[in-house]
């Protein structure tokens, strides 16, 4: 099955709204074993929308259109689809009753154009909208592409797609091939390095396939397999994932949409029943703020320290003046002292510290991007690591926090 997705809305063409619907639809279609070769974005123009639907009809088996089902003059999706398919529109009486009751309850006048939201492609199936007023449509044709019309607002589209449309598609199309995908998320390795290390696997790939994607601060791999049963496809993906982990498993921190690096670390701390604190100079609280964004972090994070000035390091943490005087703020010794003394202050199991030069100017003869991280663990000697980063002041801080989280992740993997 070849499917095509069309998003309708001038606001998306202008960049005022981001099209998230198409990505959601594509994931569900892929899970049904359908190939999505084309995504189209078209404004609220009947001529252009008609042309896009006709083009899709000639090259696809299923057309999924989102948006343009409302009552306003620019909501013309179902009218244009009806014209292209040469079928009339019919009124879904149940939906019309729902619309009428809505206006009675709200006390607002019901104008004639609101009746348009109850229209669907005659001969097809009307898809009930439990979160809005505009019904969807699923229309099958004897020759050509079937058409699925969905509302534009994600709050309406998502439940209609998942609760009604997907079961309809499963019933309409008997699957003879199943598609299974798994996304692997990596930190601490570039896309080029990852591809190089996995060259043997990637070069000989046929089924499953391995596709790398570079994202902000991380690299992802999508492993996709096709098989005659869902179980067989899942087994093929699992085998390939194990082969990948054998080569670059140290950089793998998560799967799919499991969460950010901070969420993964917090989950590990919770699982290990370990507490954490932080002492920040370079990052000025960004590490602790990142932890604080994770729901449930209070179970493992009692608080921390922002010690930007030398006097704050001495007064709040107890870092000896002699350490800073002898080695400087930007040093392994200061990073270690900050980590261990903050850990002792709050009696936590681990602590991370951040000190360095965010820029744009140098400090203590050290160029911008010089970063020292400290890691202290209960019952162990504190450690420090040096990094040389590039980019803006904000970029250096952000990257420092992620490097600290990844160091902690690796440490927790071998703990207990």
Automatic annotation (TrEMBL):
**Pfam families attached here?**
CinA (PF02464), CinA_KH (PF18146), MoCF_biosynth (PF00994)
InterPro entries given for it?
A: CinA (IPR050101), CinA-like_C (IPR036653), CinA_C (IPR008136), CinA_KH (IPR041424), Competence-induced_CinA (IPR008135), MoaB/Mog-like_dom_sf (IPR036425), MoaB/Mog_dom (IPR001453)
- At the top level, the lineage of the source is Bacteria
User: What NCBIfam families does the record tag this protein with?
Assistant: cinA_nterm (TIGR00200), molyb_syn (TIGR00177), PncC_domain (TIGR00199), PRK00549.1 (NF001813)
Per its UniProt record, what HAMAP family does this chain match?
CinA_B (MF_00226_B)
Q: Which family does it belong to?
A: Belongs to the CinA family.
The UniProt record lists the MoaB/Mog domain at 4-172
What is the protein's given name? Putative competence-damage inducible protein
